[in-house]
Amino acid sequence: MSLLLACLSGLIFGLGLLLSGMSNPAKVQGFLDISGAWDPSLAFTMAGAIGVAMPFFFWARQRSRTWLGLPLALPVSARVDRRLVFGSVLFGIGWGLSGICPGPALVGLGGGFLPAMVFVAGFCGGILAFNRRSRSTGDA
């Protein structure tokens, strides 16, 4: 049952990205182009998503299990360190250059969009490299 709900949630998320146009890299780059023809629609999409999700995050902080009885573990660290800042900057640079982030990349992958395929390959490569480095240094 939980796998079915996870797939349904992913499908709804993907449809939302498609309907809002956020799976289109040009739309994302239009939002990030503050000195040119700025497109604020991504800000409205993010604000709407935050508004919908926020009450559920407050609710989740009070619980230890999901509605399906699965363990619920939210991040507990609020520490801002060098790794977090470096990762955020790297993510932002990649997002700005490509106009693609992980959610829309998976939507594009499903649609056979070549830039999304390249992005997902690089994304997976980065995850593997991080895991390999973390295991070798004990710095997970």
Descriptive account of the structure:
- With 140 residues, the chain is an all-alpha fold.
- The protein has a domain at 2-38 and 79-137.
- Helix content is 69%, strand content 0%.
- It contains six helices and no strands.
- It has helices at 2-20, 25-32, 41-60, 82-98, 102-110, 114-137.
- Helix 1 crosses helix 5 (102-110), helix 2 (25-32) crosses helix 4 and helix 5 (102-110) crosses helix 6 (114-137).
- The longest helix is centred in the last third of the chain and has 24 residues, at 114-137.
- The mean pLDDT is 87.
Write a concise keyword list for the protein shown above.
mainly alpha, 69% helix, 0% strand
Mean pLDDT: 87
What is the strand content? under 5%
**Succession of helices and strands:** HHHHHH
SSE class: mainly alpha
The largest β sheet comes out as:
none
Give the overall form.
globular
Low-confidence regions: none
How much is the radius of gyration in Å?
Answer: 17 Å
Overall helicity: 55-70%
Count of alpha/pi helices:
6
Number of strands: 0
Between the first and last Cα atoms, what is the distance in angstroms?
32 Å
